[in-house]
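Figure 3 (text version): structure tokens given as input.
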């Protein structure tokens, strides 16, 4: 039986970079965010649920209208929660299916909202990738061309770093002052 390890962190923390390094080392990593995007484009029951929640504007020419959805969920907590209640169970089921086709002693799942959904409890361990808020803010603004207010809304939708640190087994610092590869190698030894 493989160990399952959750990789999480606030938006802009660098969890995708840590996941990419693990993949380059030969470890399977399931990207929850990417699979959620795929499922919202492919899974007819999920598409129907999203249209029921957000209206026909949720999709334009059969493509998820991401800017429209983002505006909706970061302005209305009830819609964000309702969307998560549609998407997260679909991703969890997809992850369980993915596990069946892996043959590594350690499997990783990258997910931004492990703590917020309570799903962190289903893993053998959880790794938190963290960086100071000002570093994360700059990364997100450069990557996604968002305003300070838009980035702050995303921060506000997630647990604080302090709360996440209380719930995690391992921490990787991606602040520009700590090298990632030695931290990942140490993590793999300890797992």
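Below: residues designed for each position.
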């Amino acid at each position: 039986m493989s160990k399952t390890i959750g990789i999480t962190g606030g938006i802009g923390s660098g969890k995708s970079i840590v996941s990419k390094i693990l993949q380059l080392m030969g470890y399977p990593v399931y990207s929850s965010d990417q699979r959620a995007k795929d499922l919202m484009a492919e899974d007819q029951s999920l598409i129907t649920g999203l249209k029921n929640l957000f209206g026909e504007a949720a999709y334009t020419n059969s493509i998820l209208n991401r800017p429209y959805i983002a505006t909706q969920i970061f302005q209305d907590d009830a819609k964000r929660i309702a969307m998560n209640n549609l998407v997260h169970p679909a991703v969890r089921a997809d992850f369980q299916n993915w596990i069946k086709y892996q043959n590594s002693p350690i499997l990783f799942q990258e997910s931004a909202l492990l703590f917020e959904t309570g799903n962190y409890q289903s893993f053998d361990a959880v790794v938190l990738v963290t960086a100071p808020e000002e570093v994360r803010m700059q990364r997100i603004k450069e990557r996604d061309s968002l305003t300070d207010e838009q980035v702050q809304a995303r921060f506000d939708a997630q647990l604080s770093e302090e709360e996440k640190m209380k719930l995690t087994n391992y921490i990787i610092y991606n602040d520009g002052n700590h090298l990632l590869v030695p931290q990942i190698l140490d993590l793999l030894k300890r797992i």
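The beta strands are 3-8, 29-31, 59-60, 63-64, 106-110, 125-130, 170-173.
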